[in-house]
Specification:
This protein has 358 residues and is α+β, with helices and mostly antiparallel strands. The protein has 2 domains: 119 residues; 149 residues, Rieske [2Fe-2S] iron-sulphur domain (Rieske Iron-sulfur Protein, 3-layer Sandwich), CATH 2.102.10. The chain has a 4-stranded antiparallel sheet with strand order 1-2-3-4. Strands 5-6-7-8 form a 4-stranded antiparallel sheet, with no helix packed on it. The longest helix is centred in the first third of the chain and has 32 residues. The chain starts with a helix and ends in a 16-residue tail after the last strand.
Length: 358
């Protein structure tokens, strides 16, 4: 009986009070699309023609920017080594590429906002694919898009767009082509990367000096756990006109000192280090970025571009990342005055591994 009383009390407690009503509203109705407002180009043929002229003018301006970038690359050759030419090369090529891309983007946006179809529509998607009418529907969709955009009718816009897009690629191709070495009739192997990168300015007796000030390094000054960025002593005296940047790109080295017992050395490489001091090429064997981050506790070298890691204690072998082979090791020793010197050049080509090696 007590249980029934409790149930009735609970029922009364959950009954809505007479003064409180539960409002039941109708579902929210779709308000539909707002009234369509015509653009000026839809109402005035002169405004439409002006918009067309603006768009293809921007596309041709983009074309001019691409052509200027290529011309600037030739007018201010970076190979001259002159500081003024290098600055003008960067400035004018950058301005040309910026103009090409900016005008192309603004022209495309203005075309879509002022000239393409301005009517909103709903695209009903098929619940399944693979029907017999799929090909016909796709063709119709392209035809409708062509009609709405006016791509097929507006020949000036279409042709200028094609010209601007094609031209926008040319500066990049030109710049990358300039990075490649060129062979000559007198030296057919000048363009062979294996020949170019197999030999650097390191040679027997070449002192290891600090990069970039050219200070020679005594073995006694290299403390445990330290790392030095070094170049050949002869390289430090070269000027830009004499190929300083080109030679430095091949000869840069990172030198570190570990405890001798921490090194794992092959029998034929035991004399490549000196009292725990080892030197390896800084040019990553993946795509050539500078490997310059040394972790003292793990003795790992890290390439900041694609995170390849190399173990300094074990011939700089790859322990992580996309690099395909260990960093080339520079054999070193000391001269009569205690300065660190190279025993020879690298025993293999430095740099990336994406070409054939002999």
């Amino acid at each position: 009986m007590a249980h029934d009383d409790d149930s009735q009390a609970l029922d009364r407690a959950y009954q809505p009070s007479p003064g409180l009503g539960v409002a039941v509203s109708d579902p929210v109705q779709n308000p539909g699309l707002p009234p369509h407002r015509e653009r000026m180009t839809d109402k005035d043929p002169r405004a439409e023609k002006a918009a067309v002229r603006t768009v293809y003018t921007l596309f041709y301006l983009s074309l001019a920017g691409s052509i200027w970038a290529v011309a600037a690359y030739m007018l201010f050759p970076i190979e001259s080594g002159a500081l003024i030419d290098i600055r003008q090369n960067n400035l004018f090529i950058g301005l040309g590429i910026a103009l090409a891309l900016l005008a192309l983007g603004i022209g495309a946006i203005h075309w879509s906002k002022a000239l393409m179809s301005d009517k909103e529509f709903i695209e009903h998607r098929h619940p399944t694919r693979g029907k017999d009418a799929t090909r016909e529907a796709a063709i119709k969709a392209f035809a409708d898009a062509n009609e709405e955009s006016g791509f097929g009718r507006r020949s000036m816009i279409r042709n200028s767009l094609f010209a601007a897009i094609v031209a926008s690629i040319i500066p990049g191709v030109t710049l990358f082509r300039g990075l490649a070495p060129h062979s000559t009739p007198e030296d057919p192997t000048a363009g062979d990367p294996v020949v170019l990168l197999k030999h650097t300015m390191w040679e027997e007796g070449a002192r290891l000096v600090r990069d970039p000030d050219g200070t020679p390094i005594r073995a006694a000054d290299v403390t445990l756990g330290s790392a030095f960025h070094v170049i050949p002593e002869e390289l430090a005296s070269l000027s830009h006109h004499d190929g300083y940047l080109e030679e430095k790109a091949k000869a840069i080295v990172l030198m570190m000192r570990l405890r001798p017992e921490q090194l794992i050395e092959a029998e034929d490489r035991k004399d490549w280090s000196y009292d725990g001091i080892v030197a390896y090429s800084k040019v990553c064997t993946h795509v050539g970025c500078p490997v310059a981050l040394y972790e003292q506790q793990t003795h790992h070298l890290l390439c900041p571009c694609h995170q390849s890691q190399f173990d300094v204690t074990d011939h700089a072998k790859v322990i992580f990342g996309p690099a395909a082979r260990p960093l080339p090791q520079l054999p070193i020793t000391v001269d009569d005055e205690g300065y660190l010197v190279a025993r020879s050049d690298f025993k293999e080509p430095v740099g990336p591994s994406f070409w054939e090696r002999h």
